[in-house]
Known about the structure:
Layout: H1 3-12, H2 23-31, E1 38-40, E2 63-70, E3 73-80, H3 91-107, E4 111-115, H4 126-142, E5 148-152, E6 155-157, H5 162-166, E7 169-173, E8 178-180, H6 184-191, H7 197-201, H8 203-210, E9 215-217, H9 220-233, H10 272-279, E10 286-288, E11 296-303, E12 306-313, H11 324-339, E13 344-350, H12 357-361, H13 364-377, E14 382-391, H14 392-397, E15 407-410, E16 415-417, H15 421-428, H16 430-435, H17 439-455, H18 457-462, E17 468-469, H19 475-486
Parallel strand pairs: 3-4, 4-5, 5-7, 6-8, 7-9, 12-13, 13-14, 14-15, 14-16, 15-17
Antiparallel strand pairs: 1-2, 2-3, 10-11, 11-12
Helix pairs in contact: 3-4, 11-13, 15-17
Amino acid sequence: xxxxxxxxxxxxxxxxxxxxxxxxxxxxxxxxxxxxxxxxxxxxxxxxxxxxxxxxxxxxxxxxxxxxxxxxxxxxxxxxxxxxxxxxxxxxxxxxxxxxxxxxxxxxxxxxxxxxxxxxxxxxxxxxxxxxxxxxxxxxxxxxxxxxxxxxxxxxxxxxxxxxxxxxxxxxxxxxxxxxxxxxxxxxxxxxxxxxxxxxxxxxxxxxxxxxxxxxxxxxxxxxxxxxxxxxxxxxxxxxxxxxxxxxxxxxxxxxxxxxxxxxxxxxxxxxxxxxxxxxxxxxxxxxxxxxxxxxxxxxxxxxxxxxxxxxxxxxxxxxxxxxxxxxxxxxxxxxxxxxxxxxxxxxxxxxxxxxxxxxxxxxxxxxxxxxxxxxxxxxxxxxxxxxxxxxxxxxxxxxxxxxxxxxxxxxxxxxxxxxxxxxxxxxxxxxxxxxxxxxxxxxxxxxxxxxxxxxxxxxxxxxxxxxxxxxxxxxxxxxxxxxxxxxxxxxxxxxxxxxxxx
Length: 503
């Protein structure tokens, strides 16, 4: 395919999804480098005779499979064609998908699945159900071995949703894709709830509320571009190093003016993305799960050309508190990074876990433990920068030295303690405050005394829990040098770091 024709394909997929023959192939042509795609099993047909299916045996059986190059590197893919038998999955259809799954693992190459299907082929009965099971089994076997990306660009319902959910990343297309186990009609029958397809399982629902979708794209072309970009940060498989990109952003660059981005008042919010953008290679940050659990920010970036995973508290949302959804989100992302050898850089500004009965009843203890477990389990280099608050158990959880962090840096503004000054003084000096002639002045004096004695990062540095207290403008330089020194830290006893279970 020429460059001009590729542009035409991109333009054709920039609006509403097209039904019918050709869309599935166009999507693959856009996914792979120009002219690199080679189709497999193009002549495969089903063998079903029931319900008149013997007269309907289209070549390929509603799914296109093959191999090509993405960013110059080999990758395997399948693309379901809703214009052929509704993209329904039967025995032959499933067998084709399973073949490229097996080839991806055997050859240590990424797998991209483009889902656009009416679901199980009813005419094939249990053969259809068995086909789904075979695919799910391979999703799990491939988990943590090769990157798996799912593009849901049309319907995905019932058992079909589990394959995308088992992969590393799910990308949906707004207005044309949906995912749910039971559709609106079944919901209406069973629960009497009247809800449409979009509000039950559309891209925005899964990107913002459930967290099932990591990205919600405006159209096919944007979704495919996101998939290509994700793979640019990841290695071909868990046994090789992530790809290093050319970088014209000096690793020793000072982050001038970065200290002005963080308010001195610990109660004042700010956008952590400004800090990430100032420290990492210019324009390298790709946020994952941007619309879900906004109190923590995760995503891929590059530091001196090296891919890294970013986990950062977001003071602009819920003051940066950790909660159920943010713990799930960050824990899952850390496991993804660990599976594929990406160092983890944590930017810490966290007052604690979000209080409330809803959180406790929702098992925030268990979900917070998932985040803790992910940090403790990971064997890749882990670096953290404490910008401002690091209180209580949340300080420990956010990649501290106590749970296996390799490097911990702190800005002079960092406050590391069991709790902030106001709460601590109220507990420690209740009687003294009550007996004071001027309680407000006494509180102010005691808070200043507590801050000097307990909140300063010097105490943690004296105990070796903080490796260095650094000037904010040195953050990029220090991280670059530290990462260079520990980049090859590995637990070599692990052939496979972890399976990337849905958290």
